[in-house]
Specification:
By secondary structure, this protein is of the alpha+beta class. It is 37% helix and 17% strand. It is built from 3 helices and 5 strands. Strands 1, 2, 3, 4 and 5 form a 5-stranded antiparallel sheet that branches. A hairpin with a 7-residue loop joins strand 1 and strand 2. The longest helix is centred in the first third of the chain and has 29 residues. It is extended. Bound molecules: zinc ion (ZN) (2 copies). The site of one zinc ion (ZN) has 8 residues, from loops.
Length: 142
């Protein structure tokens, strides 16, 4: 009787411990360290969500993550990525974006632009890098 009552408590303790471990790992992941592993040559597209600006440009991925880290509030569990300051309009409305791999399109768009679809689906021409690479992999396998 005693033993069977203890078991659920033990499981509860283990689950809590795992949760804490996961949280610590996440905090470490966004706290630095990992950023220095990013190559200086690595670039990412960013786009300004200010409707009066809509600037699109490439920036260093390392600088991007550094900017995000400076803006993250360590005491609050960040649910969404904070915006960076746009170099064109100076507003905090700059988010990471994808560039369409379709050479005749080349649109720069935010991930998850198309609801319930692949995050890198281009809202302009409908191409998705993920889908393309999947298709290539399938074609190569035949
Ligand atoms: Zn802007
Ligand atoms: Zn496109």
């Amino acid at each position: 009787m005693e033993d069977s009552r203890k078991k659920p408590i033990m499981i509860g303790v283990i689950v809590v411990c795992l949760g804490v471990a996961a949280a610590v790992t996440l905090m470490r992941g966004s706290g630095g360290g990992g950023i220095d592993a990013i190559s200086d040559d690595e670039m990412t597209w960013v786009k300004c969500s200010n409707p009066a600006c809509k600037a699109e440009y490439e920036m260093s991925l390392k600088q991007y993550f550094k900017g995000i880290n400076e803006r993250l509030n360590p005491t609050a569990m960040a649910r969404s990525t904070p915006p960076l300051t746009c170099k064109k309009c100076g507003k905090d409305s700059l988010f990471r974006a994808e560039k369409c791999a379709n050479p005749s399109c080349g649109a720069v768009f935010f991930r998850d632009s198309v609801p319930n679809d692949l995050p890198d689906r281009c809202p302009e021409c409908g191409q998705s890098k993920t889908e393309e690479s999947r298709r290539k992999r399938m074609a190569g396998g035949q």
